[in-house]
Amino acid sequence: MENFRKVKTSEEDSPLPFTGLAPDVVEMKVKEGSKIRNLMGFAMSRMELKGTRQIVFSGCGRAVTKTITCVEIMKRKLGGLHQVTKVRYKTLVEVWENKDPLPDGQVETLTVHKNVPSICILLSKDPLDPSEMGYQPPEPREGDNGKVPVPSSGGRGQGRVEWLC
């Protein structure tokens, strides 16, 4: 491979793995070289609009961790978002070209098909099906310090709320 150089990389186009998405759902395709600041600026501005109820983040290969980071930032900033995560494989097609042309002037090419991990994460302001594989309910609000309110039972403490950690 040291005599070859990569000239083209493309990924297969595949539909989103979620059913019942709105036709105007915001889709964020995270790439390895994407800047988180740019992705989050656009995604946050779209999710803060009244009409936007759902957003999908997707990334493959080395962009998977950046995709998850974007989702976690959005969940913390907006709060109350339901999440469904789907993991799958995508096929990347790489075309490599020989650096040294053949004696007759033709260039030798090599095509490589790579299966790389891919992730798609749906965030929704509206409740999603909790029985769906990969579902995560909204996290408690930031001001709650991760504590969940539980009503106390009977006696003197009636009407009070205790906090479980």
Automatic annotation (TrEMBL):
Q: Which GO terms describe its molecular function?
A: RNA binding
InterPro entries linked to this entry: Alba-like_dom_sf (IPR036882), Alba-like_NAB (IPR051958), DNA/RNA-bd_Alba-like (IPR002775)
List the residue ranges of the region (Disordered). Answer: 127-165
- Choose one Gene Ontology CC annotation of this protein and give it: nucleus
Q: Which SUPFAM superfamilies match?
A: AlbA-like
Q: Which GO terms describe its biological process?
A: tRNA 5'-leader removal
Q: Does the keyword Nucleus apply?
A: yes
Q: Which keywords are on file for this protein?
A: Nucleus
**Main site of residence?**
nucleus
Residues forming the DNA/RNA-binding protein Alba-like domain are 27-90
State where the protein is found. Nucleus
Record has Nucleus as a keyword: yes
Report the domain of life of the source organism: Eukaryota
Family membership noted in the UniProt record: Belongs to the histone-like Alba family.
Q: Which protein is depicted?
A: DNA/RNA-binding protein Alba-like domain-containing protein
Lineage, uppermost ranks: Eukaryota, Metazoa, Chordata, Craniata, Vertebrata
